[in-house]
């Protein structure tokens, strides 16, 4: 959930994200999230120190001094960063109604931006101040750190899922099929992520650069077609498919590069909350996939999900084990034949 990302200097399933231990807190993002509001690009020409690296175009240095310079707009939209719909500057000072201090430090993500630096998460103090600004004055101060922890955890999980798609399909459908044709488990082994499928940093292909997150937007009031269909199926067969609707939806725009150049790929993310662990730890599920913006993304989804289902249903793993056993028996027979020859 990048509903509250902001940055300073060069600084998220249905696949289940492993339920790492973290405070329970208020796991559901507040509706006040600035990411849930659409905004047009800012017209303001000056970017304050510590803001996002995006710098709007300025007047040319050789422009005639006689030309009138338009005053920057002072409205709300002019103060929003188009990369994340957040304010360029987030207040990190203690609020007047605040009953206890909150950490001011900000955690750096593992997610690269367009310029190669890393996105940075808000401090608990920044999150609390933004919620107050939106009118949510009843937010418990002692729950804010837990909310930030959950927020950061889900963002890392979302990026791990995107990295999994990019490792498979960055070089095209044919290469993606070659990687995926023997199922998810063997694909992860081939990609070097078998020990940690939710690895957010491993990129073994030195011939092309890894993906970057260009921008993102929250769309909680616009259910994805898949989420809508799943809710309908759950209403028809509640015993098998009933589930609560996603509590959030995001679109992430990712830069994918290969030998043909770079392009922008849109990913859609549905955020679900599952039943908590017996220990009280919250469990979340992220459904991350390329948006069907054309035949390529549709083919990627079909190849990845279809090959895994076919591999399991057709007994692919059993066939591999049978071949391995046959090869072992052949080696043993060959070794025994040599021994008999020498005797």
From TrEMBL:
GO molecular function, one term: metal ion binding
Record family assignment: Belongs to the cytochrome c-type heme lyase family.
Organism: Ampelomyces quisqualis
Biased composition (Low complexity): 9-19
Record InterPro entries: Holocyt_c/c1_synthase
Transmembrane segments: none
EC number: 4.4.1.17
Catalytic activity: holo-[cytochrome c] = apo-[cytochrome c] + heme b
Function: Lyase that catalyzes the covalent linking of the heme group to the cytochrome C apoprotein to produce the mature functional cytochrome.
Subcellular location: Mitochondrion inner membrane
Keywords tagged on the record: Heme, Iron, Lyase, Membrane, Metal-binding, Mitochondrion, Mitochondrion inner membrane
UniProt xrefs under PANTHER family: CYTOCHROME C1 HEME LYASE, HOLOCYTOCHROME-C SYNTHASE
Name used for this protein in its record: Holocytochrome c-type synthase
One Pfam family from the record: Cyto_heme_lyase
Organism lineage: Eukaryota, Fungi, Dikarya, Ascomycota, Pezizomycotina
Segments for region (Disordered): 1-46
GO cellular component: mitochondrial inner membrane
Enzyme class: lyase
């Amino acid at each position: 959930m990048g509903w509250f990302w902001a940055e300073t200097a060069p600084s998220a399933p249905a696949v289940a994200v492993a339920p790492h231990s973290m405070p329970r807190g208020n796991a559901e993002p507040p509706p006040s999230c600035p990411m849930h509001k659409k905004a047009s690009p800012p017209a303001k020409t000056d970017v304050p120190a510590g803001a996002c690296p995006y710098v709007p175009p300025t007047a040319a240095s050789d422009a005639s001094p006689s030309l009138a310079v338009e005053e920057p707009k002072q409205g709300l939209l002019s103060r929003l960063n188009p990369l994340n719909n957040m304010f360029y500057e987030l207040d990190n000072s203690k609020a007047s109604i605040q009953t206890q201090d909150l950490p001011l430090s900000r955690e750096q993500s593992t997610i690269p931006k367009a310029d190669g630096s890393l996105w940075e998460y808000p401090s608990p103090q920044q999150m609390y101040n933004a919620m107050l600004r939106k009118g949510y004055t009843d937010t418990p101060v002692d729950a804010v750190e837990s909310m930030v922890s959950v927020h950061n955890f889900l963002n890392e999980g979302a990026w791990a899922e995107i990295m999994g798609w990019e490792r498979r399909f960055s070089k095209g459908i044919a290469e993606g099929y070659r990687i995926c044709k023997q199922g998810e488990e063997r694909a992860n082994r081939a990609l070097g992520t078998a020990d940690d499928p939710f690895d957010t940093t491993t990129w073994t292909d030195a011939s092309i650069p890894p993906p970057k997150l260009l921008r993102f937007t929250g769309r909680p009031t616009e259910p994805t077609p898949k989420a809508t269909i799943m809710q309908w199926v759950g209403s028809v067969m509640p015993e098998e498919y009933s589930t609560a609707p996603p509590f959030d939806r995001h679109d992430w725009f990712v830069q994918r590069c290969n030998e043909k150049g770079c392009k922008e790929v849109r990913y859609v993310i549905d955020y679900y909350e599952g039943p908590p662990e017996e220990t009280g730890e919250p469990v979340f599920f992220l459904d991350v996939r390329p948006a069907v913006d054309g035949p390529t993304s549709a083919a990627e989804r079909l190849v990845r999900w279809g090959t895994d289902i076919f591999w399991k249903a057709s007994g692919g793993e059993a066939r591999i084990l049978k071949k391995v056993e046959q090869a072992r028996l052949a080696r043993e027979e060959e070794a025994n034949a040599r021994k008999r020859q020498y005797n």
